[in-house]
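Posting this for the archive.
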Amino acid sequence: MSKDDSLSALEREIEQTREQLATTIDQLLYRSHPKTIVSREVSSIKAHFVDPATGEPRTDNILKVVGGVVGVVALLVVIRKVVN
């Protein structure tokens, strides 16, 4: 292999590395964009309350959250009555 061939191969390798780095940076920017993060989190929360396969609500998870909210409200009412 001549010196020109090895330099040419090295230049191609450097260019490929630059392209890979640019792609990686673009992916990182997309993943770290606030709208992307919010969208990902909303999807995660929706998946907790709606079955992604069937689209039907997951009543067990919904009832757990409703029960927790009712419990907190009841606790606040009891505390308020005790304090007054």
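The chain is about 85% helix and 0% strand. The first helix runs from residue 3 to 32.
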